[in-house]
Amino acid sequence: MFEEVDKKKVLLDRKRPLPEYTEKSIREHLLLEWTYNSNAIEGNTLTLMETKVVLEGITVGGKTLREHLEVINHRDAILYVEEIVKHNELLTEWQIKNIHRLVLKGINDNYAGNYRDQQVIIAGANHIPPEPFLIKEQMENLIKWYNSDAEKLHPVEKAAMLHIIFVGIHPFVDGNGRTSRLLLNLELMKNGYPPIVIRNENRHKYYNALDKAHTTGSNKDFLELVIEELNKILDLYINLIK
């Protein structure tokens, strides 16, 4: 299942370090695509070009303050994730809360970085997240799993499972989706893979794969989606450095 991405990663690693401006242009492209798609999946109505404009510090008429903040916050969360990767920091609950705090900064400061104290449901899903009093224990178990059994998994599978387990717990009242995709890419980047983009046009496939994982225990569909997107990003890199 991982042979193709592993071969492409080896090819990419042989070309590192990439030329400065090639690396810079790819990073800017991915930051924009990642931010636009992750927000669009959650209902943000800014287009790709409007997202680019907001990242450049310009306000888009007719759009809400929240939609503008979602763009700026997501960029800041990506920068924080990059710092974690750069310094090879261990994943902790504190880091996860910090990522979420950046995602919700100025949008819902009361819950930014704080676990939910209310029961929620996930729209359109059969899976029901745990009650609030169970969240702390389940998040602690997630970190324990990450540092033990997860070490035996292929890095791409570990990243996908981190996303699946986290979003199943749904520890925050809002911003779980964005945070889960940031965690997915954090784990990929820690292991030398580029970040992937779960595209808005694939959101139904994405949601169905997650719900299937949570209700049946079958992670195959979600893992295949992650591998599919990872192949696309690796191909982008490889085609640019040929």
UniProtKB/TrEMBL annotation:
ATP binds at D174, G175, N176, G177, R178, T179, S180, R181, Y206, Y207. PROSITE patterns: FIDO. The record marks E42 as: Important for autoinhibition of adenylyltransferase activity. The active site is at H170. Pfam families: Fic (PF02661). GO terms for molecular function: ATP binding. Residues 91-228 form the Fido domain. Keywords: ATP-binding, Nucleotide-binding. This is Fic/DOC family protein. It comes from Clostridium amylolyticum.
